Amino acid sequence: MSNMFCFQCQEASKGTGCEIIGVCGKSPEVANLQDLLIYTLKGISQIVVKGELNVPSMGTINHEVTNALFMTITNANFDEEAIENQIRKMIGYREELKKLANLEKYSDAASFTVTDRDSMLKKAKLVGVLSTKDEDVRSLRELIIYGLKGMAAYSHHALNIGKENQNIYGFTYEALAATLDNSLSADDLVALTLKTGELGVSAMALLDDANTSKFGNPEMTEVNIGVRNNPAILISGHDLTDLLQLLEQTKGTGVDVYTHSEMLPAHYYPEFKKYDNFVGNYGNAWWKQVEEFESFNGPVLFTTNCIVPPRNESLRNRIFTTGASGYPGCTHIEADEHGVKDFSAIIEMAKTLDAPTEIETGKIVGGFAHAQVTALADKVVDAVKSGAIRKFVVMAGCDGRMNSRNYYTEFAEKLPQDSVILTAGCAKYRYNKLPLGDIGGIPRVLDAGQCNDSYSLVVIALKLKEIFGLDDLNDLPIAYNIAWYEQKAVIVLLALLYLGVKNIHLGPTLPAFLSPTVANVLVEKFGISPIGEVDEDIELFMAQ
Ligand code: SF4
Ligand code: SF3
């Protein structure tokens, strides 16, 4: 028997799954404990569904289930102890729920017991991904679970701003319980996959509403990528409320704040522009962090994924985690009962360390979320009508360390001058610093924001469909070339499928968790295809 089995991300070993240790650096213990955590959530979900419990009244439990799902996303949490504690916590809630549900019989998932870590690891070996024997059922179950993980990440961020949607929690229980139901057919599971996409749209809409109501609408912004000569903190991940608290606490301390990777889009929001010490963006996508954190010199705060295991103790000492993220040996900062986080240890550390070393200079432009693009709609529509813009290519999603992702840089470079890239997520770092120019003042790379802001791209597409009086989204001059890595990209993909977007190219490779039959369904039903060679793909896209 292998040490572990995980195939949830694009970097799954040999394109099939990590069995000895995660390519991401996840240990077998963490992988197995995460499997057990998911199994515990399935048990809870069965109790909620069969016991017909009132989901809106389950406040904290809904939040903790969301948090638990988020903790299992690729590169979010590598801390065995944190996962073990979450399992214990969830088992405690499970027992509370049983008293309310009062059912006659409980399944293994809803009743198993564990005493210590060893017994958890033993149990985990029996309930992981491979415990579903039929490869197509396994494939669909995991596709749904990964979609739920991505959805949980987005609802978690919205919740931090005080917004939640009870239907998302309700569906999460329904879908997790369904992954234990052997009576469901492959067709039932395909239908549930699309429903996951539907709720994914809701989760992204919820987060969009939360972010824009709290921080204002993103606007076209030039972001500095150079540095100043003050001690500084680098913030990474995706949580904007953590950033807000950090900026409030660093105000007037002489400590600057820079964003890394998916935090870049914070600069586009009016609310964050108020802070003089919010200097710019440092570095690139997540996978370059090991070198970039070295040269940054100051402490780093991770609010979510993507963490790369820090290679030495001195770097580990400078890394702090919060929320669903965690790494053994890094200080974790918890919120108090009001959601307030005390970042003073990070600020004090920053004061003792050197200012960041400059690794590049200049500016990048972004902020093209739906409100900004709608404000430019006349210009955009004129450019399409005059033929100045022939094609939009959605290149949203994730970046990753594999060389095969050079495809996206080359693709962006070679795209004809009359095409515009719509992007969101850390995938943008493959081309957002290239001199791609503009079309009549419209930049050829329009960055809507983080991966969750892919929702903005959908709103933009729907707006264009309305303006051009079309019946079908697929009649727009928009092609989709999506890059994926982790499970937030899975929910973005399912959301696009639910909305009826066809012919998406997905790369750099198709997910390892798609069985040949399930992959076929996606090809036949939705026209999904893997990427090919750059020149041929461009020709294909431009002709569509
Ligand atoms: Fe492997 Fe990806 Fe799972 Fe990490 S998350 S163990 S790299 S499949
Ligand atoms: Fe990137 Fe991890 Fe997915 Fe938010 S930071 S898109 S990979």
Automatic annotation (TrEMBL):
One of its GO terms (cellular component) is cytoplasm. The gene is hcp. CDD domains: HCP. Catalyzes the reduction of hydroxylamine to form NH(3) and H(2)O. One of its GO terms (molecular function) is 4 iron, 4 sulfur cluster binding. Hybrid [4Fe-2O-2S] cluster binds at H238, E262, C306, C398, C426, C451, E486, K488. Its EC number is 1.7.99.1. It is found in: Cytoplasm. GO terms for biological process: response to hydrogen peroxide. This is Hydroxylamine reductase. It is an enzyme of class 1 (oxidoreductase). Belongs to the HCP family. InterPro entries: HCP/CODH (IPR004137), Hydroxylam_reduct (IPR010048), Prismane-like_a/b-sand (IPR016099), Prismane-like_sf (IPR011254), Prismane_a-bundle (IPR016100). Binds 1 [4Fe-4S] cluster. Binds 1 hybrid [4Fe-2O-2S] cluster. PANTHER family: HYDROXYLAMINE REDUCTASE. HAMAP family: Hydroxylam_reduct.
